[in-house]
Amino acid sequence: MREAYHVEMRPEVTDEVYDSLTRELKSLLKQYPEFEDPNAPENRVAGRPLDKFQKVKHKTRMLSLNDAFSEEELYDWEKRVRKLLPGRKISYFAEVKFDGLAVTLTYEKGKFIRGATRGDGFVGEDITQNLKTIESMPLVLKAPYPEIIEVRGEAVMSKKTLAHLNRLNEKRGVPPFANTRNAAAGSLRQLDPKLAASRKLDFFAYDIASADASSLLTHSDKHIYLRELGFPVESHEVIAKSLEEVITFIKKFEKIRPDFPYGTDGVVVSVNSLELQEILGVVGKAPRYVVALKYPAEKATTVIRDIKINVGRTGVLTPIAVFEPTPVAGSTVGKATLHNMDQIEKLDVRIGDTIVIEKAGDVIPAVVEVLPRMRTGKEKKFVMPSHCPVCGTKVVKGKLVAYLCPNKKCPAKNQRYLEHFVSVFEIYEMGPKILRRFKDEGLITDAADIFTLTKEDIAPLERFGEKSAENIIAEIEAKKKVPLARFLWALGILHVGEETARDLAQNFGSLERLMTANVDEVNNVENIGPAVSKSVYGFFCDKNNLNFIKKLEKNGVIIEKEGRRKAGKFTGKTFVLTGTLENMSREIAKEKIISHGGKVAGSVSSQTSYVVAGAEPGRSDSESRQTRMSSKFTTAQKLGVKILSEGEFLKMLG
Q1: 140-168 residue pLDDT tens
Q2: Looking at the predicted structure, is the pLDDT value of residue 20 above 70?
Q3: Of these residues, 26, 57, 79, 97, which one is catalytic?
């Protein structure tokens, strides 16, 4: 009966009968405690409120999804996928994207042992006790089950439950929940399991992160297996032979979406084959093999009360429209980005204007339109400040559309940089408030000072104490050793994000080599253009930056060379790719080389080990090999660098 009620969503009795039977069962267990089972469904609420949530490091990273907001963007995604999988037959799997809280559940020997939030993808919060209160989430799996399995899914609140809670909140004079997502997240991210239980949340599984289940070949197989194990899995899904079939599914679900019991914000579309998913891989925080088609952005009108300036960690001044709290896309917002002065001038935005704001999913709201017919004549034009609103330094105009604060010691830049630095270093015990407190107390002036902190510095501070000080120091000590790619990302070099940092690390191998490289050497790295190479070179020419790096090293930071982490048959070898490969894309070939310890360069030099020459577009391989006169090919011939055909390269890969 429990499974029919909570998992299959087809109750066999009324709510009143179900509650009565549950009370009767608990009464019987009190009389006959020998039948008590801690993993039984009736024992979901666990113990007293927690003091705080513990951090949990995910065994398998919880990824984010790239978004698409139109059919056109969906087809663009498909083009990228097909480019990486030339000649391969592709089918898709589409499923509902719930608007709740993403969680990961771990089971050992069929029993639920731990549940956690996504967090930053690497580390989340342990919310095991709160998750146990969700009736539809199994505490014990149906046999046969694997020794260990990690399941990903969404904790959600039904629209019906939200309406009931908000009626109660109204009677109590408590602010209502903005939407089902906020309500679900708020219920699980508080410390009292009994409160979580009272919120009547539900759970839907959608993926398996890790398990001993080699028989699973597709994403749709995962859904079948999850159902066999006893997990609730949403029935609105489809295996599609083409993107047109996916779009048909999206349109059908869009019609029933208003009456769907739960909040949704789109449809998730995946390449169904797990083999092809592995080939496509992950870029940054998102997998290539899946995209979330978000429903059209919601719009609302409001009146601009003011335009304020936000100073980012790179010094860029971003104008922000401030207005009365306005409901849009399931949440209430009071600010929206105006991006830059070019956008303000293009829209002719003025303080006092009636504007249209747009918000899609979790995207930051933006001002997309001005309604000039609503003007009263009292509106004021906005002027970019001549001096930084935080430190007073004279603002300079960047080469593109940005206005910048050039002061390297600007507090706004420094605070945001500190937050960026500790996030990349994964020092999770130090959030923005703690960083600000340490700065205000004079304990740190820059990120390097973090590594000089001691328990004695922190414990005397109000609202800290011995235990919290020990936790912070232990976290700092554990993160002093950092891979080169992560270190470069943490430095906050203009134009250098996570992927560019990885490319630099894999091509130069050590910080010393990169610091002494000239502009051309940096520019030769594949995927790096002139603007990035100039920024990187300029960063390492600045004495202040070099002193900061020396200070980090002096304070105990150890930067791991890339070569120590990458070893294989291509270790010490540098490849250059040219022409079109028939059996795999050049991007996949690059990843294969790197995975075997090799490097990929953008141009041929005396340091090049091999040039892999594919066919030129529109020519056969033999014709292309005879007539090709590309600069990479001819340079390789002149330098005596070995040239490999695609077949020879594949043999080397094994």
Answers
A1: 999 999 999 999 999 999 999 999 998 88
A2: no
A3: 97
The CATH number given to whatever domain includes residue 594 is 3.40.50.10190
Confidence of residue 128 (pLDDT cuts 50, 70, 90): very high
Find tokens 């291509």 and name the residue.
570
Query: Rounded CA gap, 99 and 262, in Å?
Result: 8
Q: Are 89 and 242 in contact (CB under 8 A)?
A: no
pLDDT at 59 over 50: yes
Write a three-state SS string for 427-455. CCCCCHHHHHHHHHCCCCCCHHHHHHCCH
Residue 100, burial from CB neighbour count under 10 angstroms (0-12, 13-18, 19+): buried
What distance in Å separates the CA atoms of residue 245 and residue 154, rounded to the nearest whole number? 25
| pLDDT, tens digit, 9 for 90 and up, residues 419-428 | 999 999 989 8
Q: Is residue 395 part of a domain?
A: no
Domain boundary, last residue among 439, 456, 479: 479
Give Cβ neighbours of residue 623 (< 8 Å, ≥ 6 apart): none
52 included as an active-site residue: no
Following DSSP, what letter does each residue of 338-382 receive, concatenated?
A: --SHHHHHHHT-EET-EEEEEE-TTSPPEEEEE-GGG--S--EE-
424 with 330, same domain: the answer is no
| Inside any domain, residue 228 | yes
Instruction: Give pLDDT, residue 177.
Output: 78
The reply to whether 315 and 229 lie within a common domain is no
Chain position carrying tokens 């084959």: 273
- The mean pLDDT value for 31-47 works out to 57
Rounded distance between C-alpha atoms, residue 53 and residue 187, angstroms: 14
Nearest to 503 by CA among 584, 585, 562, 558: 562
Please, are residues 607 and 513 in contact by the beta-carbon 8 Å criterion?
no
CB 193 within 8 A of CB 134: no
For tokens 């660098």, name the residue: 641
429 within domain boundaries: yes
**Three state DSSP letters for 79-95:** HHHHHHCCCCCCCEEEE
Instruction: Give yes or no for a contact between 367 and 360, defined as CB atoms under 8 angstroms apart.
Output: no
pLDDT in tens, 337-385: 898 899 899 999 999 999 999 876 555 688 889 999 999 999 999 999 9
DSSP class of residue 34 equals: G
Interatomic CA distance for residues 84 and 590, integer angstroms: 12
Return the closest-CA partner of residue 485 out of 475, 477, 493. Answer: 493
Percent of the chain topping pLDDT 90: 46
Comparing CA positions, the residue from 320, 239, 231, 243 lying closest to residue 273 is: 239
- Position 6 scores a pLDDT of 41
What's the pTM value of the predicted model, to 2 decimals?
0.61
Instruction: Give the residue from 151, 143, 2 showing the smallest Cα distance to 62.
Output: 151
Instruction: Report the C-alpha gap between 307 and 644 in whole angstroms.
Output: 59
Residue 152 parent element (H or E):
strand 148-156
pLDDT for 565 equals 46
Average pLDDT score over residue span 100-119? 94
| Terminal-to-terminal C-alpha distance of the chain | 54
Quick one: which of 101, 111, 118 has its CA closest to 132?
111
Task: Select from 523, 485, 491 the least CA-distant residue to 505.
Answer: 485
Residue 472, both tokens = 């912070």
User: Total domain count for the chain?
Assistant: 6
User: What range defines the domain where residue 369 resides?
Assistant: 298-376+400-404
